[in-house]
Request: fold
Amino acid sequence: MDAKEFLVQLKARTGYDFCDYSSLSITRRLEKICEENKLTFESLLSKLVTDKAFLSKIVEDITVNTTELFRDPEVWISLYKTMYQKLPSTGTITFWHIGCSVGLETYSSLILLKEIGVLDRIRVFGTDLNPRVLNVAKKGSYAHKFNEHFKTNFEEVMRNIGSKSKFEDYFDIDEKNDTMTVKPFLSAIPKFMQQNLVQDKAPFPYKVDIVFVRNVLIYFNDALQAKVMQMINAKMYDEGMLILGKQELIPNRYSGQYKQLGYVHKRM
Amino acid sequence: MSDYKAVVIGGSAGSFAVVLKMLSNLKVTFDLPIIICMHRLKHIRSGLVESLNVKSCKEVIEPFDKQKIERGQIYLAPSNYHMFIEFDGSISLSTEDMNHQSRPSIDYTLSSAASTYRDKCLGIILTGANKDGAKGLKDIADKGGFTIVQDPKTADVPTMPKAALEIMKPNLILSPDQITDFLNKL
Ligand SMILES: C[S@@+](CC[C@H](N)C(=O)[O-])C[C@H]1O[C@@H](n2cnc3c(N)ncnc32)[C@H](O)[C@@H]1O
Reply:
């Protein structure tokens, strides 16, 4: 059995559908899982079909959850100038972070929204397939020492937007337990919810102004990318804006509907 | 120009200077896509592609996800992303775990190129302080591709070429200038 067959079988027998993921990346993930669990594709499949807890664990392991606070600082610095400073001056603004992982992208955005002074009129959603990362996102608590680059990124962004804010203004640091935790005034704002982009609708009823979908579409093939774009378009206001990862472009079929300004894709 | 479909190059410590010289001495008419995966120092995240472009015979680009690989183009793995060559001849990127403490991983780029281009792949391993890349080059050889290892005697840091030589037998072991000559004669 090869990876492709495995995915078809997995879908048929568990309902989990990874068939439209980029083939080399998903194949590598599966091979790694087989290696770590000392299983073949055949034995992995039979275990997944019979063992529910194992299935949840493997689904979580398949997704790639790498993220950072202010990942690619130059992107955030640019977004501050091109987007955050130009947000509408009245009314509620709705943000949606698709594939939010442990929430660091969401909190990065919230920090900039606080810097601009609009925390009181925003609505923020973070969605992801993986319940394990959503739980971390809700707590907003991360290992401290291992993640020192968060602070480096934070300081680079603050320096470049002319802010005097300190890391400790946004995070409580607990040296003893080696954690840093987003302060409650910020972590109380976003709603983190589960959504599988392959099959679920957006889990909230509002239209959105700004959508982040960074480093998520890279794991999908053209067909699934198109499906996600369709869902985004249906949810987004006509003047909406889309933010992709640093090395991503609007999928071909949809590129005519957006105009790119720096790292912002404006709906036309 | 030959039977090859692409040249894939991996390098780590010391390889920037080697690649820079290779690209500046390569004929402008060199028509195969060149796909480069180089480790970067953590604190120097950007600027690599700009520095290469000062001297390169042709523009070097950091590809976008799903970008089609075209003849005559030079691609450099973007910082903090793994770069794969998909079967349809496009590039895909991923941020999954590091391999040999590296993202981009040379093994990933080379192995995916081996699967896609098979015997039409030309793989090169340069100087470097890390084992990443050795297995990828072996995969290229195993699929019938052509392989070159930089002569460890000419390498700033010989760990990477030596790691390759330990697990496979390349078609050629050459100095950087000889590699450039070889490419120019293809
Ligand atoms: C690499 S992370 C990106 C995190 C963040 N956006 C960033 O760029 O820093 C990709 C996220 O997409 C999520 N994901 C993958 N497949 C998904 C799906 N089918 N539905 C929803 N989320 C998915 C993963 O669980 C993971 O958390």
User: Anything to note?
Assistant: The mean pLDDT of chain B is 92. Chain B is about 30% helix and 20% strand. The radius of gyration of chain B is 14 Å.
